[in-house]
């Protein structure tokens, strides 16, 4: 991780008019210290889970599974009905479910029946993440007018 001196140098490159203490330095030093406390391989879940929640399907899959247990085909139909993208391929749903299962958010249960049956449900960890996702969604909803205004100013 960069030292405070290295951070100070990074902050002044291209900004020679800055002199004295930079108010950003304290926050960056704290961030560098936090990141340095966690080995890079341990940091991977943070990046990966955030990226997964930002993909087209995983957050919606979590939100649907938060309502109960689903078989693959039923989950696919429900997601297609709820999604702005309308349809998720069987392969994509399988890939997302496997990734969520790998991270401990989803449990896959096979039943000894003929024909074979598999269903998916959230784990305790998955329910916790779905609850946090609810908080993020509420924040976005509460601030959506400001986001729209910023987009309008930007020209979108």
From TrEMBL:
- Top-level taxon of the source organism: Bacteria
Q: Which GO terms describe its molecular function?
A: DNA binding
Q: Which residues form a coiled coil?
A: none
InterPro entries in the record, alphabetically? Answer: HTH_HxlR (IPR002577), WH-like_DNA-bd_sf (IPR036388), WH_DNA-bd_sf (IPR036390)
Quote the Pfam families the UniProt record gives: HxlR
Q: Which SUPFAM superfamilies match?
A: Winged helix' DNA-binding domain (SSF46785)
UniProt KW keywords: DNA-binding, Transcription, Transcription regulation
Protein's UniProt keywords contain GTP-binding:
no
Domain HTH hxlR-type positions: 44-148
Q: What is this protein called?
A: Transcriptional regulatory protein
Which organism encodes this protein? Maritimibacter alkaliphilus HTCC2654
């Amino acid at each position: 991780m960069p030292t405070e001196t290295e951070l100070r140098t990074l902050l002044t490159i291209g900004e020679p008019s800055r002199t004295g203490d930079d108010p950003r330095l304290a926050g960056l030093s704290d961030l560098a210290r936090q990141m340095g406390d966690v080995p890079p391989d341990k940091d991977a879940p943070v990046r990966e889970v955030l990226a997964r929640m930002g993909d087209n399907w995983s957050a919606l899959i979590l939100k649907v599974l938060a309502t109960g247990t689903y078989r693959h085909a039923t989950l696919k139909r429900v997601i297609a009905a709820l999604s702005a993208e309308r349809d998720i391929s069987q392969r994509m749903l399988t890939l997302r479910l496997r990734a969520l299962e790998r991270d401990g958010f989803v449990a896959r249960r096979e039943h000894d029946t003929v024909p074979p049956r598999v269903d998916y449900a959230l784990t305790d960890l998955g329910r916790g993440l779905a609850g946090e996702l609810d908080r993020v969604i509420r924040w976005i909803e509460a601030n959506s007018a400001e986001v729209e205004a910023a987009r309008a100013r930007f020209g979108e």
